[in-house]
Amino acid sequence: MRKILIIGAGRSATSLIQYLIDKAESEQLQLFIADLSLELAQQKTKNQAHTTALALDIFNAEDRAAAIQQVDLVISMLPAHLHIEVAKDCLAYKKHLVTASYISAAMQELDQEVKANKLIFMNEIGLDPGIDHMSAMKVIDEIREQGGKMLLFESFCGGLVAPESDTNLWNYKFTWAPRNVVLAGQGGAAKFIQEGKYKYIPYHKLFRRTEFLHVEGYGKFEAYANRDSLKYRSVYGLEDVLTLYRGTIRRVGYSKAWNMFVQLGMTDDSYILDDSEHLSYREFTNLFLPYHPTDSVEIKMRLQLGIEQDDSMWDKLVELDIFNPTKKVGLKNATPAQILEKILSDQWTLAPQDKDMIVMYHKFGYELHGQQKQIDSKMVCLGDDQLYTAMAKTVGLPVAMAALLILNGKITTPGVQLPMRKEVYEPLLQELEQYGIHFVESEIPYVGYNPDKVVVA
After folding, report:
1. Greatest C-alpha distance within the chain
2. Whole-number Å distance between alpha carbons of 256 and 65
3. Rg (CA), the chain
4. For a Cys staple, 222 with which of 30, 112, 210, 303, CB 3.0–4.6 Å?
5. DSSP summary character for residue 81
6. Does the bond joining 129 to the residue before it have cis omega, within 30 degrees of 0?
């Protein structure tokens, strides 16, 4: 029996665990599912054969080491900053490691030792990062094999609500960590290259500069720039590309509405509000508006944002119930961003019958035999329900599949790595298609600079 330890049994691990349970007998797997909550781990094992639930406090070094020593491979579905101690134990006890998270500087520092011990520490093998890398490298490698030269690479991804579950004016519900949605774009200006020129978008302008996208069967979307589009330039081998841009997908109109919170300051996570626990939603909203002896909160809000009562932006705000004088925040020592997250969670949480949707869109511009060409590659994945979401599938399945490929000797290159090589992405992308995660590629006339890009001051 090959033994796999899965640390973290939360939402992102649902499809991952089910995949490995389904493969356990044929692949001779023994699965140890560990979580701080033994009850949660037991829920995910479902009393299946080949599975054992463990209560594991990741900060208990002795218990963590004991769990890792008994297996052949570890899958860490912990928050990214907690991977490093697991990685050090995997190195000490010579175990392979798989995570869906970005490679941290601390993780990268282990690379030489990992290689020396002929271990594989596969990272960034979820959705974004993960499927984005693999699907992009497949097309980029094919272009290069034909003798083509890359001119443009734009990549977009978004976790959205499926059309049949799209029931609010924002056309959005939380399908992943709400905190990450509230803090999106903060921490520095968005940076990318457009037609050979460096471009920067500061946070206060980010949500007013969007690009339109169209996906057949699903309509029109918009995308705002990710914080740093250039960090994968060398990894993808795109040092000389003229345009490199990565963005986050939303339904059209979301970004303009979200910008209201940005301009008011409600997304700020840098300071704590006094007596936050006892604030009503209305009082919280009023904190960011000027004092006036007679004007209501609603009037001050409209004046501050420059919107009319019959504007759709106003309807979006009213729908969130932010003017409610009786609802209490109930959060001690909270930042504005934390309170906004609480308010949004009231309205944007997936109902049990709701389905989510992942949309990924790549654009590849290149020159081949003196002609400029473009390939657009699109993927849409729909969730099954609130538990087996599209997000859980697209994050968890690649992780589980990579773990099996490592155990079966199909991935052999050692080191701390991303899924950028054919030995990783070819079998993974082929198997993902069996689970409804597939890309549709089409050749279109080369666009270059996108004239549809919206720029609003």
Report:
1. 74
2. 49
3. 23
4. 210
5. G
6. yes
Contact 157, 128 (CB under 8 A): yes
Q: What is the mean pLDDT of residues 231-250?
A: 94
Give me the chain's average pLDDT, please: 93
The pLDDT of residue 450 is 59
Geometric angle at alpha carbon 372, from 366 and 376, rounded to 5°? 55
Mean pLDDT for 423-441 is 96
At which residue do the structure tokens 């594991």 appear?
A: 56
Both tokens of residue 220?
A: 């029109």
Q: Are 331 and 338 in contact (CB under 8 A)?
A: yes
pLDDT of 143-180, one tens digit each? 999 999 999 999 999 999 999 999 999 999 998 889 99
pTM of the model: 0.91
- The string of DSSP codes covering 245-289 is EEEEEEETTHHHHHHHHHHHTTT--SSPPTTGGG-BHHHHHHTTS
Q: Which pairing describes strands 51-55 and 29-35: parallel, antiparallel, or unpaired?
A: parallel
Token duo for residue 60: 């208990």
> At a CB cut-off of 8 Å and minimum separation 6, what does 18 contact?
388
**Across residues 129-156, what is the average pLDDT?**
96
Residue pair 405/411 in contact (Cβ under 8 Å)? The answer is yes
**Burial tier of 198 (Cβ tally within 10 Å: 0-12, 13-18, 19+):** exposed
* Mean pLDDT (whole number) for 79-93: 94
Tokens of 247: 């963005």
- Residue 139 binned pLDDT confidence (cut-offs 50, 70, 90): very high
Residues in the chain: 457
| Contact (Cβ atoms closer than 8 angstroms) between residue 364 and residue 152 | yes
Predicted confidence band of residue 310 (pLDDT cuts 50, 70, 90):
confident
Selection from 150, 230, 247 nearest residue 192 by Cα: 230
CA angle 8/118/127 to nearest 5° reads: 40
Average pLDDT estimate for 202-209: 95
In this prediction, residue 456 has a pLDDT band, given cuts at 50, 70 and 90, of: very low
- Residue 347 class from Cβ within 10 Å (0-12 exposed, 13-18 middle, 19+ buried)? middle
- pLDDT-based confidence at residue 240 (cuts at 50, 70, 90): very high
Identify the CA nearest to 266 among candidates 192, 364, 324, 336: 336
Tokens, residue 242: 């003229």
Span 229-256, mean pLDDT? Answer: 94
Q: Which two tokens stand for residue 235?
A: 């990894």
Comparing CA positions, the residue from 274, 270, 266, 277 lying closest to residue 331 is 277
Element (H, E) at 7: strand 2-7
Q: Is 319 in a helix, a strand, or coil?
A: helix
Q: Alpha-carbon dihedral of residues 250, 253, 259, 264, nearest 10 degrees?
A: -130
